[in-house]
Amino acid sequence: MILGPIGFAAPWLLWALVALPILWIILRAVPPAPIRRRFPAVALLLGLRDEDHVSDRTPWWLLLLRMLAVAAVIVGLAGPVLNPRDEGTARATGPLLILMDGSWASARDWAAQTAVVDAMLAEAGRDGRPAALMQLSDPQAPVFQAADSLRARVPGLIPAPWPVTPEGMARAVDLLGESAFETRWFSDGLDAEGRASLLEALEARGPVTVHESPRAVLALTPPTLEDGQIQLRALRAVPGPLREISVNAHGLDPAGVSRVLATLPMTFDEGALEATGALSLPPELRARVTRFEIAGEAQAGAVSLTDDGLKRREVALIAGRDDREGLELLSPLHYLAQALSPTADLLEGGLMDVLPANPDVIVLADVATLSGAEQAALLDWADKGGMLLRFAGPRVAASDVSRSEEDPLMPVRLRAGGRTVGGAMSWGEPKTLAPFIEGSPFQGLSIPDDVTVSAQVMAQPDPTLADRVIAQLSDGTPLVTRKRIGAGQVVLFHVTANAEWSSLPLSGLFVQMLERLAVSSAMAPPDAAELAGTTWQPAQVLDGFGRLADADTRPGVAGERLLSAPLGPDLWPGLYEGPERSVARNVIAAETALSPVAWPARVPVEGLERAPETPLGGWLLAAALMLLTADILASLALSGRLWPARAVAMLALALSLGPVPEARAQDDARALLATQELALAHVITGDARLDDTARAGLRGLGQVLNFRTSVEPAEPIAVNLERDDLTFYPILYWPISADQPTPSAEAYVKLNDYLRNGGLILFDTRDADVAGFGAATPNGARLQRIAAPLDIPPLEPLPEDHVLTRTFYLLTDFPGRYSGRPVWVEAAPPDAEQIEGMPFRNLNDGVTPVVIGGNDWAAAWAVNERGDPMFPVGRGYAGERQRELAYRFGVNLVMHVLTGNYKSDQVHVPALLDRLGQ
Amino acid sequence: MADLALSPLRPRAEAEASRLPPLLAQAELLARTVLLGEHGRRRAGAGDDFWQYRPVQPGDSRRMIDWRRSARSDVQFVRQREWQIAQSVMLWVDPAASMRFASDKGLPEKADRARLLALAVAILLVRGGERVGLTGGTLPPRRGEMQVTRLASALMQESAEDYASPDMSGLIPHGRALLISDFMGDLAPLRDALTAAADRGVRGLLYQVLDPAEEAFPYTGRTIFESVGGTIAHETLKAGDLRARYLERLAERKDALDALCQATGWRYGCHHTGESAQSALLWLHGAMAGGGSA
């Protein structure tokens, strides 16, 4: 049975609704049970009559509540279903062609598409219609066959990572054949030339229905780098409402794991077709970004791969002499740094220090000799693609590098001494540059007239020299030479990097030459001329869902086609590697625009989804349960019995809300407890026996303090370092056990805060052996590990004149259950000197933040509930004396914490008395 | 009660005794708050301590002139002594079951509060030099700290019946009395008792202790109300409807008590267990002292 959008599985159960009015009458007739109450003033009530004898019935709203609950149960059991499948649509006959765009834009709803296709084929199979499947992204001639056998292919369908092209559609028109069929066209929603003619061809063969996902097509254009920020632009095909997206930058983290390195939120304004955003990343991070992706969009258009274009080159600058302080303009690196710093990241430091950073370029300005290790490391680095840029200079000219035989890190052999032209002591004019020769990387750069060279190092004529010269002077002597080393190269400027030998570094040409050498930038996309004749090997390709996969054995692509040819089966989007660099080919180019298809009005356009069947029974039964709960509360409230019930409800509420408010209340209670009275506290170690001992010890110490001093501490408090606030406790007793967990980082923050603000922690390794520098025992080792992150000042064994020895009792020894081991406290300042006539040094202010010892004080202090000592100390009277001394140490310690160095001030008493004339 | 009777005497006695020190301590504590700053009787009268000099007035006999003081000036002075006279104060605290009621866990039972107040007043009186005892001849008035202990143990006795009325036998003529109860029982015996007391020149206080629930009647729904002893019950279908009429009756009862007091020269006070015992004690103390001078 179906009522509107709701169908019922067991409609006959609805007859039970008829019984509801009967229930109404029954419920109204029965008054609620009385409640018995003690009430002493009942004598005053005697004789009072109820005014209204019938009024104590269930009120109408409570009845309604119960009715609703019962009705909900009945309807719920009848099995209501929202949007049941109706099987009443008219059935078409004849062959069925399922035409799918199958492009990157279809990938956004691929699962829904295939589900609908599958359902359609299943239906066609039931109706005995032959069917065929065709993907426009890679059209094949449709072969009509049994729909059931075609269904097996559906799970294997994947979208292609390229758009539907006009050529593809033209081919599809040719492949359609002559027979008549019905067409279901799953469009990706993007317009392309040729859709109209294809639609006409299809309509000529039968009715056409278009299915289109209502989900917006989003795309991301390739990122560009401007002003050090990555500019991102997202597109959408249909102007829609305000929408926020986020773009994730994926890349490898330092451990080599691919993860999201940054996220940039962007907003499509209402009605806007594009959203832009700028992402500012540190160069190190930016260089690691491999792709940008619109979060949540699993399609190739929402992915933009990055290539070398985003990377700033890392250039290491190394000069032969950098000890000439103050002569900035003469520094061999000044002009290089000026030229490179806007576009490249500069590294400075020793050669062996910068090599592990694997810079793209290393500049050696007037560095002549390299050690064997340096040379080997440089060669290894250059062999892997590094570029070594060398400049000549007085040192190179004076050295024997590459003199008799070619140095592996020099492009040419050099003649001794170099030459000087046009100087005060030589004939001739300074030389100018010759136009750049064919094949030189500098070809096409215009040479300013004022660039002159007055000194240079000279290359030895060699058979290989001609190949290696990429720039020369007007007299034909080489100015720049280059040699390849493995995947890398070494380039030598035969002049200095500063203006001593030539005016080249002062000119704009210098910057352009560096750019051409890809020293300063590898950002400019390769132009057609550079690509001509090269072959680019795909390294990774994108599939239709925007997932990167290894290219495996895909063939290389000719350079001419790489950037300009349309994407297709022979040119996948992905990352291509060529000589010296890699280039990304993305689905969306910078100039791509998305436009939606405008289907003619005669073509029916349907969405992909069908409202799913939703069983409502569970919801109704749950509603009935809630209504009944409300009924319970209401009934209790009516009969005045809500008080205990309210407690139960509060309990349930507390349970459902989780332990948070309870915990907070607990925290407040703790804080009150800790602040109302002074409380000694110990750290919870996790070892129950240890914690009990610590608690009993502090209790014993508290009793002694209570009896003997004006300090009257409350019951000791156990402190959980992870959870509790430490600020309330002046002293923390921390027994150490060998298997104690190390506190978390947050706990350490709290502890350090506590120590810095005047708290004191008494560490007790309880092994009597901390004096031997600790690590000898497991507890000592544990203490070292626990205390390592703590902000503890330098320590020293407690000196004889420390204020701890006299804050209350005069003590020389600080025993617990063990005795005789020194106790460590904050060291006195090194300039603390004992003044003549004074009993004590004038020591540091404040309280030592830690006291470290191993005498197991808590055990000596510990008393049970009746006040008897829990652990034996020593033997006989001497043992009792030792326990007494342990208590005295505790008293002194607490006094020290509470009064600081007050007793230290007694030092001045003799001087004061003296001044008073006594 | 049967199992209580069977159980050995000593544990029962200990259990009872254990309640006594807290009551005593509480009463001491409470009394101390009033005692501070209220030293002495602050009026001239018969006694040993010097109170003040005052100029001689007509009617003073010459023997009363203090020559030593008068010789220092031209005016004659009379030396007055501070009034020191012991009075007998009889206490009665309602031992009935209706007093053993507290509407909320946070509130003390009416009986507890009544005992506490009675004992605190007793302590104050004993310290002030009065003799304090219980009505009904159970404890004749005496002075001294021991009497406080005896009073405390005597006050712990409870009765099983629902409502009780004071036994006014053993009243000392021209003494004073303090009756603490909820006065929920029949008023006729009380009227008789008060009349008898007034006849013997005894004056005092009626102090009504009520639970906040008795004052507010916060009940709704179908309810059977039972007295604490269980002897009386009243069923209603709508407790909420009874509220107005109950409150009316309660007010009537208070008026009746007040009227009774005015007729006999007594004073009437009312206290709720939800309020602080200290203010009640202050009132009682003031009323006892003020009444003493009137």
Please give a structural write-up.
- The complex is a heterodimer of chains A (918) and B (294).
- By secondary structure, chain A is an alpha/beta fold.
- Chain A contains 25 helices and 42 strands.
- Chain A has a seven-stranded mixed beta sheet, with helices on both faces. Chain A has a six-stranded mixed beta sheet with strand order 7-6-5-8-9-34, with helices on both faces. In chain A, strands 29, 30, 31, 32 and 33 form a five-stranded antiparallel beta sheet that branches.
- In chain A, strand 18 (314-319), helix 9 (334-340) and strand 19 form a beta-alpha-beta unit.
- In chain A, helix 1 runs antiparallel to helix 3 (60-77) and helix 6 packs parallel to helix 7.
- The longest helix of chain A is centred in the last third of the chain and has 24 residues, at 876-899.
- With 294 residues, chain B is α/β, with parallel strands linked by helices.
- Chain B has nine helices and ten strands.
- Chain B has a six-stranded mixed beta sheet with strand order 5-4-3-6-7-10, sandwiched between helices.
- In chain B, helix 2 packs across helix 9 (277-293) and helix 4 packs antiparallel against helix 5.
- Residues 1-7 of chain B have low confidence and may be disordered.
- The interface between A and B is medium-sized, with 27 and 37 residues.
